[in-house]
Amino acid sequence: MARAVSNNRKALNTAIAWTIGIVIFFPILWTILTSFKTEAQAIADPPIFLFFDWTLENYSVVQERSNYMRFLWNSVFIAGGSTVLGVLIAIPAAWSMAFVPSRRTKDILLWMLSTKMLPAVGVLYPIYLIFIKLGILDSRIGLTIVIMLINLPIIVWMLYTYFKEIPGEILEAARMDGATLKEEILYVLTPMAIPGIASTLLLNFILAWNEAFWTLNLTAVKAAPLTAFIASYSSPEGLFFAKLSAASTMAIAPVLILGWFSQKQLVRGLTFGAVK
Amino acid sequence: MATQHSRYAARFMMAPAVILLLGWMLVPLTMTLWFSFRSYLPLRGGDQGFVGFENYVRFISSSAFWPAVITTLIIVGGVLAITVILGIVLALLLDQPMWGQGIVRILVIAPFFVMPTVSALVWKNMFMDPTNGLFAHLWKFFGATPVEWLSQASLPSIVLIVSWQWLPFATLILLTAVQSLDSEQLEAAEMDGAPYMKRFWFMILPHLSRAITIVILIQTIFLLSIFAEIFVTTGGAFGSRTLTYLIFQRVLESQNVGLGSAGGVYAIILANIVAIFLMRIVGKNLDA
Lengths: 276, 288
Known about the structure:
The complex is a heterodimer of chains A (276) and B (288).
Chain A: H1 7-34, H2 39-42, H3 57-66, H4 68-99, H5 105-116, H6 124-134, H7 140-164, H8 168-176, H9 181-210, H10 214-217, H11 226-231, H12 241-261, H13 263-270
Chain B: H1 4-36, E1 38-41, E2 46-50, H2 54-61, H3 65-95, H4 101-109, H5 116-127, H6 134-141, H7 149-152, H8 154-179, H9 183-191, H10 196-224, H11 228-233, H12 243-253, H13 257-287
Antiparallel strand pairs in B: 1-2
Protein backbone atom coordinates (compact mmCIF):
# COMPACT_ATOMS: atom_id res chain seq x y z
CA MET A 1 0.00 0.00 0.00
CA ALA A 2 2.81 2.33 -0.83
CA ARG A 3 1.61 5.79 -1.64
CA ALA A 4 2.95 9.31 -1.94
CA VAL A 5 3.65 10.91 1.43
CA SER A 6 5.41 14.02 2.59
CA ASN A 7 9.16 13.94 3.07
CA ASN A 8 8.72 14.64 6.77
CA ARG A 9 6.65 11.55 7.22
CA LYS A 10 9.15 9.56 5.20
CA ALA A 11 12.05 10.85 7.31
CA LEU A 12 10.21 9.85 10.48
CA ASN A 13 9.51 6.36 9.10
CA THR A 14 13.13 6.03 8.09
CA ALA A 15 14.42 7.05 11.52
CA ILE A 16 12.12 4.66 13.41
CA ALA A 17 12.68 1.73 11.06
CA TRP A 18 16.46 2.12 11.03
CA THR A 19 16.59 2.35 14.82
CA ILE A 20 14.58 -0.84 15.20
CA GLY A 21 16.56 -2.56 12.45
CA ILE A 22 19.86 -1.74 14.11
CA VAL A 23 18.61 -2.87 17.54
CA ILE A 24 17.52 -6.22 16.08
CA PHE A 25 20.76 -6.63 14.14
CA PHE A 26 22.90 -5.47 17.06
CA PRO A 27 23.77 -8.89 18.58
CA ILE A 28 25.17 -9.98 15.22
CA LEU A 29 27.03 -6.70 14.73
CA TRP A 30 28.42 -6.89 18.27
CA THR A 31 29.62 -10.45 17.70
CA ILE A 32 31.40 -9.46 14.50
CA LEU A 33 33.01 -6.42 16.16
CA THR A 34 34.10 -8.40 19.22
CA SER A 35 35.77 -11.01 17.04
CA PHE A 36 38.34 -8.36 16.05
CA LYS A 37 39.16 -7.30 19.62
CA THR A 38 41.69 -8.64 22.09
CA GLU A 39 40.24 -10.61 25.00
CA ALA A 40 40.85 -7.68 27.34
CA GLN A 41 39.09 -5.23 25.06
CA ALA A 42 36.21 -7.65 24.59
CA ILE A 43 35.24 -7.46 28.25
CA ALA A 44 36.30 -3.82 28.82
CA ASP A 45 34.02 -1.76 31.04
CA PRO A 46 32.65 0.50 29.62
CA PRO A 47 32.39 -1.52 26.39
CA ILE A 48 34.39 -0.29 23.41
CA PHE A 49 32.39 -0.06 20.22
CA LEU A 50 34.70 0.86 17.37
CA PHE A 51 37.88 2.41 18.66
CA PHE A 52 39.91 -0.62 19.57
CA ASP A 53 43.03 -2.14 18.02
CA TRP A 54 41.59 -4.35 15.31
CA THR A 55 43.24 -7.74 15.24
CA LEU A 56 42.80 -11.00 13.34
CA GLU A 57 44.50 -13.00 16.06
CA ASN A 58 41.30 -14.68 17.33
CA TYR A 59 40.60 -16.22 13.97
CA SER A 60 43.97 -17.91 13.77
CA VAL A 61 43.79 -19.03 17.40
CA VAL A 62 40.38 -20.64 16.86
CA GLN A 63 41.67 -22.53 13.83
CA GLU A 64 44.85 -23.69 15.61
CA ARG A 65 43.23 -24.85 18.83
CA SER A 66 40.16 -26.55 17.53
CA ASN A 67 40.88 -27.44 13.94
CA TYR A 68 37.97 -25.29 12.84
CA MET A 69 38.40 -26.33 9.23
CA ARG A 70 37.33 -29.88 10.02
CA PHE A 71 34.04 -28.71 11.52
CA LEU A 72 33.51 -26.38 8.59
CA TRP A 73 34.07 -29.23 6.16
CA ASN A 74 31.61 -31.41 8.10
CA SER A 75 29.00 -28.66 7.89
CA VAL A 76 29.58 -28.17 4.18
CA PHE A 77 29.47 -31.91 3.54
CA ILE A 78 26.32 -32.54 5.59
CA ALA A 79 24.36 -29.46 4.54
CA GLY A 80 25.45 -29.65 0.91
CA GLY A 81 25.13 -33.41 0.62
CA SER A 82 21.70 -33.61 2.24
CA THR A 83 20.35 -30.77 0.12
CA VAL A 84 21.62 -32.09 -3.20
CA LEU A 85 20.49 -35.61 -2.39
CA GLY A 86 17.08 -34.33 -1.27
CA VAL A 87 16.60 -32.30 -4.43
CA LEU A 88 17.57 -35.24 -6.65
CA ILE A 89 14.97 -37.43 -4.96
CA ALA A 90 12.36 -34.68 -4.88
CA ILE A 91 12.55 -33.51 -8.50
CA PRO A 92 10.84 -36.57 -10.03
CA ALA A 93 8.25 -36.65 -7.25
CA ALA A 94 7.44 -32.95 -7.55
CA TRP A 95 7.41 -33.21 -11.33
CA SER A 96 4.83 -35.96 -11.35
CA MET A 97 2.66 -34.22 -8.75
CA ALA A 98 2.69 -30.98 -10.69
CA PHE A 99 2.17 -32.36 -14.20
CA VAL A 100 0.41 -35.70 -13.79
CA PRO A 101 -1.82 -34.98 -10.80
CA SER A 102 -4.17 -37.71 -9.67
CA ARG A 103 -6.93 -37.78 -7.09
CA ARG A 104 -4.44 -38.68 -4.42
CA THR A 105 -1.80 -36.05 -5.21
CA LYS A 106 -3.13 -33.57 -2.69
CA ASP A 107 -3.30 -36.17 0.06
CA ILE A 108 0.23 -37.36 -0.61
CA LEU A 109 1.53 -33.81 -0.54
CA LEU A 110 -0.23 -33.04 2.73
CA TRP A 111 0.95 -36.29 4.23
CA MET A 112 4.54 -35.48 3.25
CA LEU A 113 4.28 -32.09 4.92
CA SER A 114 2.81 -33.69 8.02
CA THR A 115 5.93 -35.85 8.45
CA LYS A 116 7.79 -32.57 8.89
CA MET A 117 5.70 -31.91 11.99
CA LEU A 118 6.82 -35.07 13.73
CA PRO A 119 8.70 -33.92 16.85
CA ALA A 120 12.29 -35.11 16.57
CA VAL A 121 12.55 -35.93 20.25
CA GLY A 122 9.72 -38.45 19.86
CA VAL A 123 11.88 -40.62 17.64
CA LEU A 124 15.26 -39.78 19.15
CA TYR A 125 15.99 -43.16 20.69
CA PRO A 126 14.97 -45.31 17.71
CA ILE A 127 17.16 -43.26 15.39
CA TYR A 128 19.99 -43.36 17.92
CA LEU A 129 19.65 -47.15 18.18
CA ILE A 130 19.46 -47.65 14.42
CA PHE A 131 22.58 -45.53 14.06
CA ILE A 132 24.48 -47.62 16.61
CA LYS A 133 23.35 -50.88 14.99
CA LEU A 134 24.38 -49.67 11.54
CA GLY A 135 27.62 -48.25 12.89
CA ILE A 136 26.90 -44.77 11.55
CA LEU A 137 26.69 -42.86 14.83
CA ASP A 138 28.99 -39.84 14.59
CA SER A 139 29.41 -40.30 10.84
CA ARG A 140 28.84 -37.68 8.16
CA ILE A 141 26.89 -40.10 5.99
CA GLY A 142 24.37 -40.92 8.71
CA LEU A 143 23.75 -37.28 9.54
CA THR A 144 23.47 -36.37 5.86
CA ILE A 145 20.71 -38.94 5.43
CA VAL A 146 18.76 -37.82 8.51
CA ILE A 147 18.92 -34.17 7.56
CA MET A 148 17.96 -35.00 3.99
CA LEU A 149 14.90 -36.80 5.33
CA ILE A 150 13.78 -34.02 7.65
CA ASN A 151 14.05 -31.46 4.84
CA LEU A 152 12.66 -33.67 2.07
CA PRO A 153 9.01 -32.60 2.64
CA ILE A 154 9.96 -28.92 2.30
CA ILE A 155 12.05 -29.64 -0.78
CA VAL A 156 9.23 -31.58 -2.48
CA TRP A 157 6.77 -28.87 -1.52
CA MET A 158 8.89 -25.98 -2.82
CA LEU A 159 9.71 -27.71 -6.09
CA TYR A 160 6.02 -28.59 -6.52
CA THR A 161 4.97 -24.94 -6.18
CA TYR A 162 7.68 -23.85 -8.64
CA PHE A 163 6.80 -26.55 -11.17
CA LYS A 164 3.12 -25.64 -10.89
CA GLU A 165 3.97 -22.19 -12.20
CA ILE A 166 5.34 -23.64 -15.44
CA PRO A 167 2.51 -23.48 -18.00
CA GLY A 168 1.33 -26.95 -18.98
CA GLU A 169 0.69 -25.84 -22.58
CA ILE A 170 4.40 -25.69 -23.25
CA LEU A 171 4.77 -29.30 -22.19
CA GLU A 172 1.84 -30.32 -24.35
CA ALA A 173 3.35 -28.54 -27.31
CA ALA A 174 6.59 -30.44 -26.76
CA ARG A 175 4.64 -33.70 -26.61
CA MET A 176 2.82 -32.83 -29.83
CA ASP A 177 6.18 -32.34 -31.46
CA GLY A 178 7.03 -35.87 -30.47
CA ALA A 179 9.27 -35.27 -27.47
CA THR A 180 9.74 -38.32 -25.29
CA LEU A 181 9.31 -38.14 -21.55
CA LYS A 182 13.05 -37.95 -21.09
CA GLU A 183 13.44 -35.17 -23.65
CA GLU A 184 10.52 -33.34 -22.17
CA ILE A 185 12.13 -33.30 -18.75
CA LEU A 186 15.65 -32.63 -19.95
CA TYR A 187 15.13 -29.97 -22.62
CA VAL A 188 11.81 -28.33 -21.83
CA LEU A 189 11.20 -28.57 -18.14
CA THR A 190 14.66 -28.33 -16.65
CA PRO A 191 15.67 -24.98 -18.19
CA MET A 192 12.43 -23.42 -16.98
CA ALA A 193 12.71 -25.00 -13.57
CA ILE A 194 16.29 -23.99 -12.83
CA PRO A 195 15.48 -20.78 -10.92
CA GLY A 196 13.04 -22.68 -8.71
CA ILE A 197 15.50 -25.50 -8.14
CA ALA A 198 18.22 -23.00 -7.26
CA SER A 199 15.98 -21.27 -4.71
CA THR A 200 15.06 -24.61 -3.20
CA LEU A 201 18.72 -25.60 -2.91
CA LEU A 202 19.51 -22.27 -1.30
CA LEU A 203 16.86 -22.29 1.41
CA ASN A 204 17.33 -25.93 2.29
CA PHE A 205 21.07 -25.57 2.47
CA ILE A 206 20.50 -22.85 5.06
CA LEU A 207 18.03 -24.96 7.02
CA ALA A 208 20.41 -27.93 6.97
CA TRP A 209 23.38 -25.77 7.97
CA ASN A 210 21.54 -24.50 11.03
CA GLU A 211 19.89 -27.77 12.07
CA ALA A 212 20.70 -28.24 15.75
CA PHE A 213 18.84 -31.22 17.15
CA TRP A 214 20.19 -34.17 15.22
CA THR A 215 23.60 -32.62 14.74
CA LEU A 216 23.96 -32.26 18.51
CA ASN A 217 22.57 -35.68 19.38
CA LEU A 218 24.09 -37.89 16.71
CA THR A 219 27.65 -36.61 16.58
CA ALA A 220 30.56 -36.64 19.00
CA VAL A 221 33.97 -35.84 17.57
CA LYS A 222 34.42 -37.09 14.03
CA ALA A 223 31.34 -35.83 12.25
CA ALA A 224 30.49 -32.80 14.39
CA PRO A 225 29.51 -29.82 12.23
CA LEU A 226 29.70 -26.17 13.24
CA THR A 227 26.50 -26.27 15.31
CA ALA A 228 28.09 -28.84 17.61
CA PHE A 229 31.47 -27.10 17.54
CA ILE A 230 29.90 -23.87 18.79
CA ALA A 231 27.93 -25.73 21.45
CA SER A 232 31.27 -26.99 22.81
CA TYR A 233 32.09 -23.36 23.62
CA SER A 234 29.27 -23.44 26.17
CA SER A 235 31.70 -23.26 29.07
CA PRO A 236 34.27 -22.34 30.16
CA GLU A 237 35.76 -21.38 26.79
CA GLY A 238 32.66 -19.31 26.12
CA LEU A 239 34.00 -16.76 28.57
CA PHE A 240 36.73 -15.89 26.09
CA PHE A 241 34.43 -13.51 24.28
CA ALA A 242 36.75 -12.58 21.44
CA LYS A 243 37.43 -16.18 20.48
CA LEU A 244 33.79 -17.16 20.90
CA SER A 245 32.91 -14.26 18.60
CA ALA A 246 35.46 -15.25 15.99
CA ALA A 247 34.20 -18.83 15.98
CA SER A 248 30.59 -17.64 15.80
CA THR A 249 31.26 -15.17 13.03
CA MET A 250 32.89 -17.85 10.92
CA ALA A 251 29.99 -20.21 11.58
CA ILE A 252 27.24 -17.78 10.58
CA ALA A 253 28.90 -15.67 7.88
CA PRO A 254 28.37 -18.02 4.91
CA VAL A 255 24.72 -18.53 5.69
CA LEU A 256 24.02 -14.88 6.52
CA ILE A 257 25.19 -13.97 3.05
CA LEU A 258 23.18 -16.75 1.40
CA GLY A 259 20.20 -15.83 3.57
CA TRP A 260 20.00 -12.34 2.14
CA PHE A 261 19.35 -13.88 -1.25
CA SER A 262 16.67 -16.21 0.00
CA GLN A 263 14.23 -13.89 1.81
CA LYS A 264 11.47 -14.53 -0.69
CA GLN A 265 11.91 -18.30 -0.67
CA LEU A 266 11.62 -18.25 3.09
CA VAL A 267 7.95 -17.35 2.90
CA ARG A 268 7.25 -19.86 0.16
CA GLY A 269 9.25 -22.67 1.74
CA LEU A 270 8.17 -22.38 5.32
CA THR A 271 4.50 -21.48 5.05
CA PHE A 272 3.69 -24.29 2.63
CA GLY A 273 1.97 -21.84 0.31
CA ALA A 274 -0.57 -20.83 2.91
CA VAL A 275 0.55 -17.20 2.66
CA LYS A 276 0.97 -15.69 -0.78
CA MET B 1 -4.58 -35.26 -20.75
CA ALA B 2 -2.13 -37.54 -19.11
CA THR B 3 -1.86 -40.92 -20.76
CA GLN B 4 -1.90 -44.26 -19.00
CA HIS B 5 1.78 -44.50 -19.76
CA SER B 6 2.67 -41.23 -18.09
CA ARG B 7 0.57 -42.19 -15.07
CA TYR B 8 2.74 -45.23 -14.50
CA ALA B 9 5.82 -43.12 -15.00
CA ALA B 10 4.50 -40.58 -12.51
CA ARG B 11 3.87 -43.20 -9.87
CA PHE B 12 7.33 -44.60 -10.45
CA MET B 13 8.92 -41.19 -10.08
CA MET B 14 7.09 -40.47 -6.87
CA ALA B 15 8.11 -43.78 -5.34
CA PRO B 16 11.57 -42.93 -3.92
CA ALA B 17 10.37 -39.87 -2.02
CA VAL B 18 7.22 -41.61 -0.77
CA ILE B 19 9.02 -44.78 0.30
CA LEU B 20 11.79 -42.86 2.08
CA LEU B 21 9.38 -40.65 3.98
CA LEU B 22 7.14 -43.59 4.80
CA GLY B 23 10.12 -45.46 6.22
CA TRP B 24 11.37 -42.38 8.05
CA MET B 25 7.96 -42.01 9.65
CA LEU B 26 6.88 -45.59 10.30
CA VAL B 27 10.05 -47.33 11.45
CA PRO B 28 11.06 -44.99 14.30
CA LEU B 29 7.44 -44.35 15.22
CA THR B 30 6.72 -48.04 15.57
CA MET B 31 9.89 -48.46 17.63
CA THR B 32 8.94 -45.57 19.93
CA LEU B 33 5.48 -47.08 20.40
CA TRP B 34 6.99 -50.50 21.09
CA PHE B 35 9.49 -49.15 23.65
CA SER B 36 6.82 -47.07 25.33
CA PHE B 37 5.06 -50.24 26.48
CA ARG B 38 8.22 -51.88 27.79
CA SER B 39 10.51 -51.40 30.71
CA TYR B 40 13.72 -50.71 28.82
CA LEU B 41 16.86 -49.48 30.58
CA PRO B 42 19.86 -50.12 28.28
CA LEU B 43 22.42 -49.47 31.03
CA ARG B 44 20.54 -51.13 33.90
CA GLY B 45 19.32 -54.55 32.82
CA GLY B 46 18.19 -53.84 29.27
CA ASP B 47 14.75 -54.80 28.07
CA GLN B 48 12.74 -56.12 31.00
CA GLY B 49 9.55 -56.88 29.21
CA PHE B 50 6.05 -55.59 28.64
CA VAL B 51 4.63 -53.24 31.27
CA GLY B 52 1.39 -52.05 29.69
CA PHE B 53 0.63 -48.39 30.22
CA GLU B 54 2.90 -48.04 33.23
CA ASN B 55 5.37 -45.74 31.42
CA TYR B 56 2.54 -43.47 30.30
CA VAL B 57 1.21 -43.20 33.83
CA ARG B 58 4.66 -42.71 35.34
CA PHE B 59 5.63 -40.04 32.83
CA ILE B 60 2.58 -37.96 33.70
CA SER B 61 2.71 -38.55 37.42
CA SER B 62 6.42 -37.81 37.79
CA SER B 63 7.19 -34.62 39.70
CA ALA B 64 9.00 -33.21 36.66
CA PHE B 65 6.00 -33.46 34.32
CA TRP B 66 3.76 -30.56 35.25
CA PRO B 67 6.61 -28.07 35.71
CA ALA B 68 7.80 -29.09 32.23
CA VAL B 69 4.32 -28.53 30.79
CA ILE B 70 4.12 -25.09 32.39
CA THR B 71 7.64 -24.19 31.21
CA THR B 72 6.73 -25.28 27.68
CA LEU B 73 3.54 -23.22 27.75
CA ILE B 74 5.36 -20.14 29.05
CA ILE B 75 8.10 -20.37 26.42
CA VAL B 76 5.78 -21.11 23.49
CA GLY B 77 3.15 -18.60 24.64
CA GLY B 78 5.70 -15.90 25.45
CA VAL B 79 7.53 -16.21 22.16
CA LEU B 80 4.26 -16.31 20.20
CA ALA B 81 2.93 -13.18 21.92
CA ILE B 82 6.15 -11.23 21.39
CA THR B 83 6.80 -12.30 17.80
CA VAL B 84 3.21 -11.85 16.61
CA ILE B 85 2.68 -8.42 18.20
CA LEU B 86 6.09 -7.05 17.26
CA GLY B 87 5.81 -8.79 13.91
CA ILE B 88 2.60 -6.91 13.08
CA VAL B 89 4.13 -3.60 14.17
CA LEU B 90 7.29 -4.24 12.16
CA ALA B 91 5.40 -5.43 9.09
CA LEU B 92 3.26 -2.29 9.06
CA LEU B 93 6.32 -0.13 9.61
CA LEU B 94 8.38 -1.81 6.88
CA ASP B 95 5.50 -1.33 4.47
CA GLN B 96 5.69 2.45 4.87
CA PRO B 97 7.69 4.49 2.38
CA MET B 98 11.20 5.17 3.67
CA TRP B 99 14.79 5.48 2.62
CA GLY B 100 16.90 2.34 2.60
CA GLN B 101 13.95 -0.03 2.97
CA GLY B 102 15.89 -2.95 1.51
CA ILE B 103 18.70 -2.58 4.03
CA VAL B 104 16.33 -2.34 7.00
CA ARG B 105 14.60 -5.49 5.78
CA ILE B 106 17.93 -7.31 5.70
CA LEU B 107 18.82 -6.10 9.20
CA VAL B 108 15.49 -7.29 10.57
CA ILE B 109 15.58 -10.69 8.86
CA ALA B 110 19.22 -11.52 9.66
CA PRO B 111 18.66 -13.24 13.05
CA PHE B 112 16.69 -16.02 11.35
CA PHE B 113 19.83 -17.17 9.59
CA VAL B 114 21.97 -17.39 12.71
CA MET B 115 22.38 -21.00 13.83
CA PRO B 116 20.59 -21.72 17.13
CA THR B 117 23.73 -22.66 19.03
CA VAL B 118 25.43 -19.41 18.03
CA SER B 119 22.53 -17.19 19.01
CA ALA B 120 22.11 -19.03 22.31
CA LEU B 121 25.81 -18.73 23.16
CA VAL B 122 26.17 -15.12 22.07
CA TRP B 123 23.18 -14.08 24.15
CA LYS B 124 24.24 -16.22 27.08
CA ASN B 125 27.80 -14.95 27.30
CA MET B 126 28.13 -11.62 25.61
CA PHE B 127 24.82 -10.18 26.72
CA MET B 128 23.59 -12.06 29.77
CA ASP B 129 26.83 -12.90 31.54
CA PRO B 130 26.47 -11.39 35.04
CA THR B 131 30.02 -9.95 35.17
CA ASN B 132 31.12 -9.18 31.63
CA GLY B 133 27.92 -9.22 29.62
CA LEU B 134 26.63 -6.07 27.97
CA PHE B 135 23.49 -6.12 30.10
CA ALA B 136 25.64 -6.22 33.24
CA HIS B 137 27.58 -3.16 32.01
CA LEU B 138 24.31 -1.42 31.27
CA TRP B 139 22.83 -2.25 34.68
CA LYS B 140 25.99 -1.03 36.45
CA PHE B 141 25.94 2.16 34.39
CA PHE B 142 22.52 2.94 35.81
CA GLY B 143 23.68 1.98 39.30
CA ALA B 144 21.70 -1.27 39.46
CA THR B 145 22.97 -4.69 40.50
CA PRO B 146 23.52 -6.90 37.43
CA VAL B 147 21.00 -9.71 37.06
CA GLU B 148 22.12 -13.32 36.74
CA TRP B 149 19.84 -13.72 33.78
CA LEU B 150 19.94 -17.41 33.05
CA SER B 151 19.63 -18.55 36.66
CA GLN B 152 17.45 -15.86 38.24
CA ALA B 153 15.27 -15.16 35.22
CA SER B 154 15.85 -18.21 33.06
CA LEU B 155 12.46 -18.29 31.35
CA PRO B 156 12.27 -14.61 30.33
CA SER B 157 15.86 -14.90 29.09
CA ILE B 158 15.11 -17.94 26.94
CA VAL B 159 11.91 -16.31 25.67
CA LEU B 160 13.99 -13.27 24.68
CA ILE B 161 16.58 -15.37 22.82
CA VAL B 162 14.02 -17.47 20.98
CA SER B 163 11.85 -14.45 20.16
CA TRP B 164 14.87 -12.75 18.64
CA GLN B 165 15.35 -15.80 16.41
CA TRP B 166 11.71 -16.05 15.32
CA LEU B 167 10.70 -12.40 14.99
CA PRO B 168 12.12 -12.25 11.44
CA PHE B 169 9.94 -15.18 10.37
CA ALA B 170 6.75 -13.60 11.75
CA THR B 171 7.65 -10.21 10.31
CA LEU B 172 8.40 -11.55 6.86
CA ILE B 173 5.15 -13.51 6.58
CA LEU B 174 3.02 -10.69 7.98
CA LEU B 175 4.78 -8.25 5.65
CA THR B 176 3.85 -10.45 2.70
CA ALA B 177 0.23 -10.33 3.88
CA VAL B 178 0.29 -6.55 4.47
CA GLN B 179 1.56 -5.99 0.97
CA SER B 180 -1.45 -7.75 -0.50
CA LEU B 181 -3.77 -5.32 1.26
CA ASP B 182 -6.01 -3.27 -1.02
CA SER B 183 -4.61 0.25 -0.69
CA GLU B 184 -7.55 1.91 -2.43
CA GLN B 185 -9.97 0.71 0.20
CA LEU B 186 -7.70 1.97 2.95
CA GLU B 187 -7.31 5.33 1.27
CA ALA B 188 -11.04 5.61 0.85
CA ALA B 189 -11.48 4.94 4.56
CA GLU B 190 -8.84 7.53 5.34
CA MET B 191 -10.64 10.10 3.13
CA ASP B 192 -13.85 9.38 4.99
CA GLY B 193 -12.02 10.35 8.15
CA ALA B 194 -11.52 6.95 9.78
CA PRO B 195 -8.71 7.35 12.34
CA TYR B 196 -5.70 5.03 12.13
CA MET B 197 -6.73 2.82 15.05
CA LYS B 198 -10.14 2.22 13.46
CA ARG B 199 -8.58 1.37 10.12
CA PHE B 200 -6.19 -0.95 11.92
CA TRP B 201 -8.90 -2.80 13.89
CA PHE B 202 -11.53 -3.05 11.20
CA MET B 203 -9.52 -3.32 8.00
CA ILE B 204 -5.87 -4.24 8.50
CA LEU B 205 -6.20 -6.74 11.34
CA PRO B 206 -9.02 -8.79 9.74
CA HIS B 207 -7.00 -8.92 6.53
CA LEU B 208 -3.99 -10.21 8.48
CA SER B 209 -5.93 -12.74 10.53
CA ARG B 210 -5.15 -15.67 8.24
CA ALA B 211 -1.45 -14.89 8.11
CA ILE B 212 -1.43 -14.50 11.90
CA THR B 213 -3.07 -17.91 12.31
CA ILE B 214 -0.45 -19.47 10.08
CA VAL B 215 2.43 -17.80 11.91
CA ILE B 216 1.01 -19.07 15.20
CA LEU B 217 0.54 -22.65 13.95
CA ILE B 218 3.91 -23.00 12.24
CA GLN B 219 5.82 -21.37 15.07
CA THR B 220 4.02 -23.51 17.65
CA ILE B 221 5.18 -26.65 15.90
CA PHE B 222 8.78 -25.45 15.76
CA LEU B 223 8.74 -23.89 19.24
CA LEU B 224 7.40 -27.04 20.89
CA SER B 225 10.62 -28.74 19.87
CA ILE B 226 13.24 -26.07 20.57
CA PHE B 227 16.27 -27.82 21.93
CA ALA B 228 19.64 -26.22 21.23
CA GLU B 229 18.72 -22.96 22.94
CA ILE B 230 18.10 -24.78 26.23
CA PHE B 231 20.91 -27.30 25.77
CA VAL B 232 23.45 -24.48 25.42
CA THR B 233 22.13 -21.93 27.91
CA THR B 234 20.86 -23.74 31.00
CA GLY B 235 20.97 -27.43 30.18
CA GLY B 236 17.44 -27.66 31.51
CA ALA B 237 18.31 -26.25 34.94
CA PHE B 238 16.67 -23.31 36.75
CA GLY B 239 13.13 -24.25 35.79
CA SER B 240 13.83 -24.16 32.05
CA ARG B 241 13.13 -27.82 31.35
CA THR B 242 10.54 -28.09 28.59
CA LEU B 243 8.69 -31.26 27.61
CA THR B 244 11.10 -31.81 24.73
CA TYR B 245 14.06 -31.42 27.04
CA LEU B 246 12.53 -33.67 29.68
CA ILE B 247 12.06 -36.44 27.10
CA PHE B 248 15.63 -35.93 25.84
CA GLN B 249 16.94 -36.31 29.41
CA ARG B 250 14.86 -39.42 30.08
CA VAL B 251 15.99 -41.08 26.86
CA LEU B 252 19.66 -40.15 26.49
CA GLU B 253 20.86 -38.85 29.85
CA SER B 254 19.19 -41.26 32.26
CA GLN B 255 18.73 -43.92 29.56
CA ASN B 256 15.20 -44.80 30.63
CA VAL B 257 14.01 -45.52 27.13
CA GLY B 258 10.58 -46.89 28.04
CA LEU B 259 9.66 -43.83 30.05
CA GLY B 260 11.15 -41.43 27.51
CA SER B 261 9.33 -43.14 24.65
CA ALA B 262 6.00 -42.75 26.44
CA GLY B 263 6.85 -39.05 26.74
CA GLY B 264 7.73 -39.06 23.06
CA VAL B 265 4.31 -40.43 22.18
CA TYR B 266 2.69 -37.60 24.16
CA ALA B 267 4.84 -35.08 22.27
CA ILE B 268 3.85 -36.60 18.93
CA ILE B 269 0.16 -36.44 19.81
CA LEU B 270 0.50 -32.84 20.94
CA ALA B 271 2.29 -31.81 17.74
CA ASN B 272 -0.31 -33.60 15.65
CA ILE B 273 -3.16 -31.66 17.22
CA VAL B 274 -1.51 -28.42 16.08
CA ALA B 275 -0.57 -29.92 12.73
CA ILE B 276 -4.18 -30.88 11.92
CA PHE B 277 -5.27 -27.23 12.05
CA LEU B 278 -2.31 -26.17 9.92
CA MET B 279 -2.87 -28.90 7.36
CA ARG B 280 -6.50 -27.91 7.02
CA ILE B 281 -5.49 -24.38 5.98
CA VAL B 282 -2.75 -25.63 3.67
CA GLY B 283 -5.15 -28.14 2.12
CA LYS B 284 -7.77 -25.47 1.42
CA ASN B 285 -5.12 -23.41 -0.31
CA LEU B 286 -4.13 -26.32 -2.52
CA ASP B 287 -7.67 -26.49 -3.87
CA ALA B 288 -7.76 -22.81 -4.70
